Known about the structure:
With 403 residues, the protein is α/β, with parallel strands linked by helices. It is 45% helix and 14% strand. Strands 2-8-7-6-5 form a 5-stranded mixed sheet, with helices on both faces. Strands 9-12-11 form a 3-stranded antiparallel sheet. Helix 4 (77-88) packs across helix 12 (294-304), helix 7 (158-172) packs parallel to helix 8 (193-207) and helix 8 (193-207) packs parallel to helix 9. It is globular, with a radius of gyration of 21 Å. The mean pLDDT is 93.
Amino acid sequence: MVHEFLAGGAGGGNDPIFALNAEAQRRRAAGESILNATLGTLLRDDGSLFVLPSVVRAMNEVPAEVAAAYAPIAGDEPFTRAVRSDLLRASPWIDSSLAVATPGGSGALHLALTTFLERGQAAVVPEFHWGPYATMASHADRRLSTFRMFAADGRFDLESYERGLAACIAEQGRALAILNFPCNNPTGYSLDRDEWRDVASITAEAGRRAPVSLMIDYAYARFAADDREDWLEDVRNELEDALLLVAWSGSKSFLQYGARIGALVAVHRDDEFLRKAHDALSFACRGTWSNCNRRGLLAIAGILGDPAARDRVRGERAEAVATLMERVAAFRTASHGSQLRYPRYEGGFFVSVFSQEAQAVASRLRELGVFVVPMAGAVRVALCSTPVGEVPRLVDALVDTVE
Length: 403
């Protein structure tokens, strides 16, 4: 029997988001009018994939014989240097940082889970988080420990975050927190400056009691309404006694999902720690995926290292952000006056509508030809793939089913 060859911990079945997307595509191909708000890919209003021409050109300009060669295990040095510069800008912390290449932001998350937690230990995440976090943790023999994301006033629940860190420290002597901001997947929520400062202060206090790492999943940050870097200054100023990690996603930022371009960036004041961490992360890269996509690494390094190319890409990305914000505005307008409840939403690929019957809501929506992703306590709506003209239909369907 085939199953006899599988290890006991092997999972099964398709990812639920991709399964919903496949059903939506089948029904559309059969002639139904389908509104598919499942996948986190940015589409133009005509349904075509949004790509950045300058990025495509840079990918095509990498010589074939260079692209075909192995990349260094931790990534080409121009790429890792460019990523650190892109993230940290002119900050003095750039000299207190390292970066290793990963296959997308997912690879960075995997490295964080397996390098900064022991087997059986748990990462601290908010209750509303990207579903594959749990898949990655389970596959690596780690776990997730969730805390309540929103307080009664609708803001980030700092007290619950603090309790979550304390509980993990008490249980396992260390903590790794994973926060996906700005533009949280699945809610679209972004921390404001006060919330960033408070998160950093709480993390720093925990870091004085035990080894604590704060991982920022930065996947959607370049699609925020306001591409500001204030958060980094607020966080780094506080984190003298904790490790700052960032999952940097070129796959998202440059709209090249299939190229799998990413990096794990670590910031710490101790040079010796950074050297040891780089060795450990490189070892993990070799033992997991070996090398990353060299064409993608070199193309993105070239863009980030050339001010003119970088500006062209920013201009092209600005069009994508404007498209998203038009849909955000349409969603707010269409839902105004309804009883739909959703978090503060200022940009990004997704918004979540709260419901304690999310599975039933998603099922009723599918009957109407509207596909969203159900979660515990909410349904995730991918405005990134919803044409602006379809937003009223989407909201009407949500109002009819959620209320």
